[in-house]
């Protein structure tokens, strides 16, 4: 859900339902890495409510596109972490079996 | 896309890896990503746990819901969890959430006949699917057979009986802690310590030793040959 103004698409607040700090803090981090973003923050109105408000203000680009790109970057990073982790586990296993065989 | 140049891709290095324990390093990323990973590991990785218990006979000292609660907390091998469906999403069963695609059936029959106390353990739970069984915590070296009996559910006296049927379903830790696969997940920052070698040269051996001892946990050591 987006709360914005029709005249100014570069700043908006997005309301995510059924989410919490897990996603919101990670998205905030990836948005802050984007140079188009001038302000980014999130808040949780009430802890019993599974709802997160993410505020994005950009240097001109529509806030919605910037948020979508931020989420895409987060997905890429997570895929990268997964493949790096799998590779690291494989390397560790081969290294420890080599050490045991020596 | 402008954001790409600022995107950092984290690096992973494994420190230790055992069957039930992993210690690894995550570099070039932020605490928010590490925390998100920790939160997902605890709350959102799906596992299988007993969710519905039908008790036929229970003459033990524990009441029905007590035993049902204990059964729910027994860890089950959950490799099948990723291919299973959530019971509420399953369209193959006739609405009671007990078909083979979304659930696994267990049964347990125990009656104490001897004068000795009978321990009803997780090893007495029989599964309809041999890939989903209570986790076996026994030591592979097999030192002491009395320690390998599994998790004790209830103890029975002579004449007491327990007979039940249990359905295990897929779930996530957010719904109930019995579905959480992780015992503990923690992360901490790793401090980067640089020792100023030039200043170290100016200290005498006693001063170096007192400096090494001054740290509360033993972090530094003096090399006896070079005395550094």
Describe this structure in words.
The complex is a heterodimer of chains A (102) and B (228). Chain A has a four-stranded antiparallel sheet, covered by helices on one side. The longest helix of chain A is centred in the last third of the chain and has 39 residues, at 63-101. Chain A is built from two helices and four strands; from the N terminus they run ββαββα. Chain A has 102 residues and is α+β, with helices and mostly antiparallel strands. Chain A starts with a strand and ends with a helix. Chain A has a single domain (2-101), classed as Gyrase A, domain 2. In chain A, 51% of the residues lie in helices and 25% in strands. In chain B, a hairpin with a 2-residue loop joins strand 1 (11-18) and strand 2 (21-27). The model of chain B has no long low-confidence stretch (mean pLDDT 82). A four-stranded antiparallel sheet of chain B has the order 3-8-4-6, covered by helices on one side. Chain B has a two-stranded antiparallel ribbon with strand order 1-2. Chain B has helices at 31-43, 64-72, 197-201, 205-213, and strands spanning 11-18, 21-27, 47-58, 103-111, 118-121, 126-127, 152-156, 161-171. Chain B is elongated, with a radius of gyration of 26 Å. Chain B is built from four helices and eight strands, in the order E-E-H-E-H-E-E-E-E-E-H-H. Chain A binds chain B through residues 20-23, 25-26, 28-30, 33-36, 69-70, 73, 76-77, 80-81, 84-85, 88-89, 91-93, 96, and chain B through 1-3, 6-14, 17, 24, 26, 29-30, 32-33, 35-37, 39-40, 43-44. Chain A: It comes from Hevea brasiliensis. Chain A: It is found in: Nucleus. Chain A: Belongs to the archaeal Rpo11/eukaryotic RPB11/RPC19 RNA polymerase subunit family. Chain A: Residues 12-83 form the DNA-directed RNA polymerase RBP11-like dimerisation domain.
């Amino acid at each position: 859900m987006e709360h914005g103004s029709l005249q100014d698409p570069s700043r908006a607040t997005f309301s995510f339902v059924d989410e919490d700090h897990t996603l919101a803090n990670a998205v905030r981090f990836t948005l802050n890495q984007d140079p188009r973003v001038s302000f980014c923050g999130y808040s949780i109105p009430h802890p019993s409510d599974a709802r997160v408000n993410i505020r994005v203000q950009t240097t001109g680009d529509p806030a919605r596109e910037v948020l979508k790109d931020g989420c895409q970057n987060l997905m890429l990073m997570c895929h990268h972490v997964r493949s790096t982790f799998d590779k690291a586990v494989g390397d560790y296993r081969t290294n420890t079996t080599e050490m045991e065989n020596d | 896309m402008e954001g790409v140049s600022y995107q950092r891709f984290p690096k992973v290095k494994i420190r230790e890896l055992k069957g039930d324990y992993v210690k690894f390093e995550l570099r070039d990323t932020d605490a928010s990503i590490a925390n998100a990973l920790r939160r997902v590991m605890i709350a959102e990785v799906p596992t299988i746990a007993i969710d519905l218990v039908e008790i036929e006979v229970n003459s033990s000292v524990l009441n029905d819901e007590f035993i049902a609660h204990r059964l729910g907390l027994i860890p089950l091998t959950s490799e099948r969890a990723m291919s299973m469906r959530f019971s509420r999403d399953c369209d193959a069963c006739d609405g009671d959430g007990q078909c083979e695609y979304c659930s696994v059936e267990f049964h347990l029959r125990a009656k104490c006949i001897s004068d000795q106390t009978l321990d009803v353990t997780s090893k007495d739970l029989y599964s309809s699917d041999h890939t989903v069984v209570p986790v076996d915590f026994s030591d592979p070296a097999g030192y002491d057979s009395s320690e390998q009996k599994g998790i004790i559910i209830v103890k029975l006296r002579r004449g007491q009986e327990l007979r039940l049927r249990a359905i295990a379903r897929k779930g996530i830790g957010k719904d109930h802690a019995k579905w959480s696969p992780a015992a503990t997940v923690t992360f901490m920052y790793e401090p980067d310590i640089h020792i100023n070698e030039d200043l170290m040269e100016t200290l005498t051996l006693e001063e170096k030793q007192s400096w090494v001892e001054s740290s509360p946990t033993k972090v530094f050591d003096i090399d006896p040959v070079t005395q550094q």
